[in-house]
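Query structure, 549 tokens:
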């Protein structure tokens, strides 16, 4: 990333802040990503300019951070996108910040920050609001959460272009899945818009977002985490409609993930693919075949691999696609053998493992949530042995990251503002949702209660959640109503189990190899409802309909 720059970058850590304190100089924090085209552009045009680089090296302590490898730094200092250019006091507080800065803009900001520092010093530093307001407003969970989110989606829905909101336009897989069950027409029109505009028709896989409301201005980077989530979303759309127009985008993305984003040496999925210097995505198919492949970040990260495993197994459950199953199993084996230690996910396969003073792996909530979801999906679809690993992940997370009624993103320790606790709503919800699944699969009510308390911890602000937080409403609905549960007294892969997976409610939980029934039977449950047992797929379909009605 920084081979073009003339800036003498330091690594993130306490040493850089100590150096800044000793020199009485601000820190220039550059947040970048390997897939970020504008980050490379800023390196080539701004940080490579000799006078700017000299100015930074003489008057600041420059620190470069890869946001995928240091997610807690990203979440505390992100200025709304990447690159983020953030000026800090030696105590880690924020002096000012911006996004992309060209040479002229950087010169002006450097002069402004230097003047600010000489005038006010560390007194000019501030702590961002999410780090000042530690405890979110708690409240009661009611059915109003679901209806309020549906109202948000309806209000934000783009009748002309599909999707939600103005610009930029993101695919929002959680919103797509929420709407599938509650306003299918709106959901399917948005699925259509995402596939028509963000799917790479040549190589497969989804681009990250479009800059304009009409889906113009495509940003051609492709990220593992969003593609894994979109495989799941499109597979669920296929489940509910039976239409190939939703299966095919998922299939194309599975092909992309298992070829371009497959790290064969690691036996897992690579993190991302950049747009490429000449933006090969904008040329026609003939020229594209001869163009250099855009570079891939081969890094293997636990959380994004968890999302990919979940997406591929969901697709396999509905299609019997052996390629999806095979690669999900391979990545799962790497996850279990190389990225899990005593229930804690190691963030990255490469580099040094971050450990606490007791030598234990440092847990990150996002990793724990996505790995737990991958394991519960595995237990439901593939093999029940995954429940032991899922329980270990859940217990380690509750033990080490739960603070009060909700969860911190990681331990409140480290350089800069890492010592400030952060309770990210999205990953709290993702973990609560995975706990609900685990509560059913493992028949452990305690996980359901932790999920309830986690959701209640944020409920006081739920009327203000935007469409990006549709999963909160989905999870609250599953908690209050109880998910549709299909218990099958048969092993994964049998006809009755496969039929259960394909019953058209993508928010259901299928429990294979249950001890609650005689062998070869299945039963449908929801809340206090219990169906008669079923022996055949046809009977099971009837039982599901009777419970849903």
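Result returned for the query:
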């Amino acid at each position: 990333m920084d081979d073009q720059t003339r800036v003498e970058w330091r690594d993130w850590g306490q040493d850089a802040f100590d150096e800044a304190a000793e020199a009485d100089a601000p820190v220039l924090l550059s947040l970048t990503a390997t897939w970020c085209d504008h980050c490379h552009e800023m390196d080539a045009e701004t940080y490579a300019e000799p006078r700017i680089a000299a100015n930074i090296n003489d008057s600041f302590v420059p620190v470069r951070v890869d946001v995928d490898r240091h997610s807690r730094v990203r979440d505390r200092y992100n200025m709304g996108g990447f690159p983020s250019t953030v000026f800090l006091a030696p105590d880690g507080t924020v002096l000012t910040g911006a996004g992309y800065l060209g040479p002229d803009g950087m010169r002006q900001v450097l002069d402004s920050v230097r003047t600010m520092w000489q005038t006010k010093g560390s007194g000019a530093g501030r702590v961002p609001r999410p780090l000042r307001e530690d405890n979110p407003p708690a409240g009661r969970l009611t059915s109003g959460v679901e209806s309020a989110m549906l109202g948000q989606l309806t209000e934000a829905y783009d009748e002309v272009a599909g999707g939600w909101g103005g610009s930029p336009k993101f695919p929002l897989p959680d919103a797509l899945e929420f709407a599938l069950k509650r306003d299918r027409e709106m959901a399917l029109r948005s699925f259509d818009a995402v596939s028509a505009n963000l799917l790479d028709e040549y190589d497969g896989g989804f681009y990250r977002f479009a800059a304009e409301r009409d889906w113009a201005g495509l940003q051609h980077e492709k990220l593992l985490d969003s593609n894994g989530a979109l495989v799941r979303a499109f597979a669920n759309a296929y489940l509910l409609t039976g239409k190939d127009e939703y299966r095919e985008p998922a299939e194309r993305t599975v092909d992309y993930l298992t070829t371009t984003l497959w790290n064969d040496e690691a036996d897992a999925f690579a993190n991302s693919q950049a747009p490429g210097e000449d933006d090969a995505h904008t040329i026609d198919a003939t020229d594209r075949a001869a163009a250099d492949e855009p570079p891939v970040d081969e890094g293997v990260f636990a959380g994004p691999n968890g999302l990919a495993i979940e997406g591929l197994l969901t697709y396999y459950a509905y299609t019997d696609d052996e390629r999806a199953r095979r690669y999900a199993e391979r990545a799962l084996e790497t996850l279990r053998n190389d990225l899990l230690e005593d229930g804690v996910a190691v963030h990255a396969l490469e580099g040094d493992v971050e450990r606490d003073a007791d030598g234990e792996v440092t847990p990150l909530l996002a990793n724990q949530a996505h790995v737990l979801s991958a394991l519960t999906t595995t237990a439901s679809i593939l093999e029940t042995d995954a429940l032991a690993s899922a329980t270990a992940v859940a217990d380690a997370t509750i033990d080490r990251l739960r603070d009060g009624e909700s969860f911190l993103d990681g331990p409140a320790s480290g350089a800069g503002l890492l010592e400030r606790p952060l309770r990210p709503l999205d990953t709290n919800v993702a973990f609560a949702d995975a706990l609900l699944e685990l509560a059913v699969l493992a028949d452990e009510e305690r996980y359901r209660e932790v999920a309830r308390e986690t959701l209640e911890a944020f409920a006081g602000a739920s009327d203000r959640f935007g469409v990006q937080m549709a999963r909160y409403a989905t999870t609250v609905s599953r908690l209050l109503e109880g998910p549709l549960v299909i218990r099958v007294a048969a092993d994964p892969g049998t006809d009755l189990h496969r039929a259960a997976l394909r019953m058209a409610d993508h928010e259901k939980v299928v429990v294979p190899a249950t001890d609650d029934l005689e062998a070869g039977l299945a039963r449908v449950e929801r809340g206090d409802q219990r169906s008669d047992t079923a022996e055949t797929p046809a009977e099971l379909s009837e039982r599901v309909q009777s419970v849903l009605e």
